[in-house]
Design brief:
Blueprint lengths: L37 H7 L4 H10 L15 H7 L4 H16 L8 E2 L1 H13 L6 E8 L5 E8 L6 E6 L2 E6 H7 L3 E5 L5 E5 L5 E2 L6 E2 L2
Length: about 210
C-alpha cells in the first residue's frame, strides 16, 4: 500500500505550466533539471505529478521510506542510490519527455491498461456492465484526492464520456476541474489507478493529492 507524505509547497515557477492556459509564463524552470528538489518538481508541474511520481519510483526515488528525501535535489537522490551521472541524465530526459506529452483537455480518458483493469475488476465484482464513477473529495495535503467507484447508470446531472469501451460518469459540478484528466493504471508496490490532471495547480510532495490554487 502506498503512503502519504506531507511536505511544504515550494514555488519554483511564477506560474506552473498548464495546458488549459496557453498564456502561462514559462521561465527557466519550465523543464526539470538535476538541481531541482523532488518537492520542487511536483510544485512546478502538478498537472503531471502522478506520471512524474511513477517515473521517479521506477528509478528508486520514492519520497517515503527512502534515502531520497523530497527536499534533496534530484542529482543528490540519484547519486545516493549509487547510480551514475549517465543514469541521472537519462532520468531527466524521461521526466522532461513526460512533460512534453500532449493532453486532451476536451474529454476524460482511460489508458488502454486502465480500461482493461477496470473491466477486469468489474467482472470480478459481478458488475460487468458498470460504468466508472469519477469524482474528487476534500482530503490530503494539497486539498483534494480523486475518487473512483462503480456506477450502475449515469445520473441526470452527470456528464458521460466513453473511453476504450468504458463509460465514465462525472457530476457536472466537478467537470470544470476534472475535464482533461487521464486515468492510468500502474503495477508494482504502489499499484493502482493514477490520474493526471491538466487543471491542477499544486501537488503534495508525493503527488498523491492536488489543489487548484
Amino acid at each position: 500500500m502506498s503512503k502519504s507524505c506531507c511536505s511544504s509547497k515550494t514555488s519554483c515557477c511564477e506560474e506552473a505550466p498548464n495546458s488549459t492556459n496557453p498564456s502561462s509564463k514559462k521561465n527557466a524552470s519550465s523543464k526539470i533539471v538535476p538541481s531541482m528538489t523532488i518537492d520542487e518538481i511536483f510544485a512546478c508541474f502538478p498537472q503531471r505529478a502522478q506520471k512524474l511520481a511513477q517515473i521517479l519510483s521506477k528509478h528508486g526515488l520514492q519520497c517515503v521510506g527512502c534515502s531520497a528525501s523530497t527536499w534533496e535535489t534530484l542529482e543528490s537522490g540519484v547519486l545516493k542510490h549509487g547510480k551514475s551521472a549517465r543514469d541521472l541524465e537519462e532520468l531527466v530526459i524521461k521526466l522532461n519527455s513526460c512533460l512534453d506529452e500532449p493532453m486532451d483537455i476536451t474529454t476524460i480518458t482511460l489508458t488502454p491498461k486502465a480500461a482493461s483493469k477496470f473491466i477486469e475488476i468489474s467482472a470480478a465484482e459481478g458488475k460487468p456492465n458498470c460504468g466508472l464513477r469519477f469524482d474528487e473529495q476534500a482530503a490530503g495535503c494539497s486539498g483534494f484526492e480523486y475518487v473512483l467507484d462503480f456506477s450502475l447508470k449515469a445520473d441526470a446531472d452527470d456528464a458521460v464520456y466513453k473511453s476504450h469501451g468504458v463509460e465514465i460518469h462525472i457530476n457536472k459540478f466537478s467537470l470544470s476541474r476534472l475535464l482533461g484528466c487521464e486515468i492510468d493504471y500502474v503495477d508494482g508496490l504502489q499499484s493502482g489507478f493514477k490520474i493526471s490532471n491538466p487543471n491542477a495547480r499544486s501537488s503534495c510532495g508525493c503527488g498523491s493529492s492536488h489543489g487548484y490554487e
